What does this fold into?
Amino acid sequence: MADSTVGVESHDPALRHHFATREQQREASSLGMWLFLGTEIMFFGGMFCAYLIYRYWYYNEFAAGSRSISIKWGTINTIVLICSSLTVALSVRAAQMGKRKLVLLLLSLTMLFGVAFLGIKGIEWYEKFQEHHVPGQSFDASDIVREYPQIHINQQHEQIYFSLYFAMTGLHALHMIIGLGIFLYLTFHTWKGTYTPEYYTPLEIGGLYWHFVDIVWIYLYPLLYLIDRKPLG
Amino acid sequence: MSEHIIPAKLYVGIWIALMILTVLTAGVSFIDLGPFNTVVALVIATCKALLVVLFFMHVKYTSEKMTKVVILSAVFWLFILLALSLSDYGTRMWR
It folds into this structure.
């Protein structure tokens, strides 16, 4: 017993007993997060699979639907998310160097970008509600049919494009909202001084989540907004 | 990740590359490349995803080989899902 007491006193406070080194401890947490992100890939993968099949079957309707959503807001939102990923990466770096105030600033900027993304998403969805492009009883894509007489459009199939548009951007937006919650928690603990250059694992893990959500958008952007933008002959 | 601290300049460089690729993919979509529009869009998206994974998510610097195994398996599983599903739905009109 005397031995173990001595062992506890000289123990690195940032290291759990079942790990040999701090590096091993960090890598283990990171690996666990990557396993979770693997399940997330399959979670979104089901939707991407549905998208792929229907796009293959109803290409015309997907092309016309893609033309009808705002490329301006889509591109701005892509840029906003890339900026947020930079601030996340820099915040983890600032934590590694123990610059608490810089971490707080960068986390706040990240949340600001996140809120801006959701706000822009809200504007886009609002426009779609006004245009009756939301799948359901009041769905009406006759404006799209009129706008692109060159493309043969079946309105039922058009509805499938918009179902996938709302499901995929909605699921992504839900992940953004959860991400904002995680970053609020991280900001609170940074403010309290929980994280040090020896222990910043939650920041690293939270960062991995945020970057993953960014990557999902990196694929959603061309798949939803850029299907067919070339001039119609 | 390890104790390795990546220079801020590198992060900013990756950010600039991601911005350029975003503008590029938006621009290319207005040019008629036939079926290659989709190919170019997906190649650019994959380049962006790789930059984020390798540098922002520190996979390039991790000493834990299992992390890379997990990522590659996850992507491989996604391809199983997509390939087997498409081999069914894509060939139903062949009868």
In short: The longest helix of chain A spans residues 155-192.
